[in-house]
Specification:
By secondary structure, the protein is of the alpha/beta class. The chain folds into two domains: about 75-160, Alpha Horseshoe (Serine Threonine Protein Phosphatase 5, Tetratricopeptide repeat), CATH 1.25.40; about 215-495, Aldolase class I (TIM Barrel, Alpha-Beta Barrel). Helices cover about 50% and strands about 10% of the residues. The protein has helices spanning about 10-95, 100-115, 120-130, 135-150, 160-165, 190-195, 200-215, 260-270, 290-300, 320-325, 340-345, 350-365, 380-395, 420-435, 450-460, 480-490; strands at about 220-230, 275-280, 310, 330-335, 370, 375, 400-405, 440-445, 465, 470, 475, 495. The strands form two sheets. Strands 1, 2, 3, 4, 5, 6, 7, 8, 9 and 12 form a ten-stranded parallel sheet that branches. Strands 10-11 form a two-stranded antiparallel sheet. α13 (about 380-395) links the parallel β6 and β7. The protein binds iron/sulfur cluster. The site of iron/sulfur cluster (SF4) has 8 residues, from loops.
Length: about 525
């Protein structure tokens, strides 16, 4: 029989309850300690660990890996560029030294390693020509053209946007552009002489191939030339009606008012001109003079019309050249006219070296140089080719090369000179295209004496720029409507203006030319 438990005393009940409370407190404390350890130590540590790994992974993925890739690519590109430059330069030097077989081997090796560069084929063509193999030269030029049509390397003149909108040539953005720019090898007098005396069709076939390789668009640059200050010039250029020394009937005028010039410039733009050239009959311009300040002001306003701006103001010093560039001049025109030997027979008031000095100053200021010559000054073919040798040797080469035919002006010493034979003119244009492939070759004064067919032949041979407008300084020029019809009939389009065009870059492999020592 179970005996009933004796009832707990108050003291015992108190002790039991206290023991239960202590036990519960101890259990809670233990649970709380466990939670605290997990929440305060283990979980944050784990989170930090995960975060740290995340940051490291993302850093490696987005920063280190791309940098490593870029560095590998740079190293690869640099080594490709350096190798290409070296082998091209070696081939050029061998060629210039007359070691034609070695030059050909080197350039063929260059072509094999750089199939995307047209310049290798062009040098190969020149070597073949020097070896007397025109057929092989033409084949190389065809290859150059084919390569150029597929090329992805940037132009020396930044025209990519315009080209992509109008040309048939696809611009492949998914390929990285090749930055290698091989040095240009100027043509020697001997080469120019041999080319000039090739059978006519052989010559224009070659110049056409080079023209198409560098100017695949069917475009012609239209330039309007305005005489902003006519006559009364102190110089004695024997072909020029603006010299104050001759009784040519051309009256000395003051510098045109800016408003009148702006009206003419706007009209030229509305007629489709892409370059507006302003000429002043002065020996030169100097900083701080009233007339130079006025010209700067005019240039600033004309340059806002969206056309390329060209000026021809005579001699320039470095400061004047920099001020013109700053005002918005795209190109400075300063022709060397003829060979240095013949120059002394047509001008006595300044020297050939003075001309070169101005060209150097224009180049140094970052302006493009437009420089060419005049045929029909009583010079020989030798003089013409010597002039071309000098232009071809400029570093950078001229951006445009006007080839003028003398328009004999009554009252000037050369008023009785005969006209230039059309085939001689086309030969000069063809050889200029071969010697200065990237230049705009301008069919300039004397076009009124050429038939439409003769002009078409000149454009086929390499001319891609004309003076446009009814008047050329003091000489006549074909009417605008006639020119438009000619271009339409030939399926040619006016070239769009590129006022922000950078001047051609100098080749780093040789000294700038003309040099101040020459000048
Ligand atoms: S060509 Fe120029 S520098 Fe020579 S006379 Fe004519 S305007 Fe004067």
């Amino acid at each position: 029989m179970d005996l009933p438990e004796p009832p707990l005393t108050l003291r015992e009940q108190y002790l039991v309850n206290r023991a239960r409370a202590d036990l519960k407190m101890a259990q809670n404390q233990e649970r709380s300690d466990r939670q605290t350890l997990w929440q305060r130590t283990i979980l944050p540590s784990l989170l930090w660990l995960v975060l740290w790994f995340g940051v490291c992974f993302m850093g490696a993925y987005f920063v280190v890996w791309p940098m490593r890739d870029a560095s590998l690519n740079n190293r690869k590109n640099r080594s490709v560029d350096e190798t290409a430059t070296n082998s091209y330069t070696r081939a050029s030097s061998l060629f210039l030294n007359g070691q034609l077989d070695s030059a050909l081997k080197t350039i063929q090796e260059f072509i094999r390693k750089n199939p995307g560069l047209s310049t290798g084929h062009i040098l190969a063509a020149r070597i073949h020509l020097a070896q007397g193999h025109p057929d092989l030269a033409i084949a190389s030029l065809r290859e150059a053209r084919k390569t150029a049509l597929n090329r992805t390397e940037p132009d020396e003149y930044p025209r990519t946007e315009r080209r992509s909108s109008r040309s048939q040539i696809p611009i492949t953005d998914n390929q990285s552009p090749i930055t290698f720019q091989p040095p240009h090898v100027p043509m020697t007098y001997a080469e120019l002489h041999r080319l000039y005396h090739l059978p006519f069709f052989d010559l224009i076939q070659q110049s056409r191939a080079v023209h198409q390789a560098h100017w695949p668009e069917r475009e012609v640059q239209l330039c309007t030339l305005l005489s902003i200050k006519t006559g009364g010039c102190s110089e004695d250029c024997s072909y020029c009606a603006q010299s104050a020394r001759y009784s040519s009937g051309v009256k000395a005028e003051k510098l045109m008012e800016k408003d009148d010039i702006m009206v003419r410039a706007q009209a030229a733009r509305d007629n489709g001109s892409t370059r507006f050239c302003m000429g002043a009959a002065w020996r030169g311009v100097r900083m701080g003079t009233d007339r130079f300040e006025k010209v700067i002001d005019i240039v600033k306003d004309v340059s806002k019309l969206g056309m390329e701006v060209c000026v021809t103001l005579g001699e320039l010093g470095p400061q004047e050249a920099a001020a013109l560039k700053e005002a918005g001049v795209t190109a400075y025109n300063h022709n060397i006219d003829t060979s240095p030997e013949h120059y002394t027979k047509i001008v006595t008031t300044h020297t050939f070296e003075d001309r070169l000095r101005t060209i150097r100053n224009a180049q140094d200021a970052g302006m493009s140089v437009c420089s060419g010559g005049i045929l029909g000054l009583g010079e020989t073919v030798e003089d013409r080719l010597k002039m071309l040798e000098i232009l071809s040797g400029f570093n950078p080469q001229p951006e445009s090369v006007p080839i003028n035919s003398l328009m004999p002006m009554p009252g000037t010493p050369l008023s009785e000179n005969g006209g230039v034979d059309v085939f001689d003119l086309v030969r000069m244009i063809a050889v200029t295209r071969l010697a200065i492939p990237k230049a705009k070759v301008r069919l300039s004064a004397g076009r009124t004496r050429l038939s439409r067919e003769a002009q078409a032949l000149a454009m086929f041979a390499g001319a891609n720029s004309i003076f446009y407008g009814d008047k050329l300084l003091t000489a006549a020029n074909p009417a605008v409507a006639e020119d438009q019809r000619l271009l339409r009939d030939l399926g040619l389009m006016p070239q769009e203006p590129n006022p922000s065009m950078a001047a051609p870059a100098a080749c780093g492999e040789r000294a700038c030319s003309p040099s101040m020592a020459e000048a």
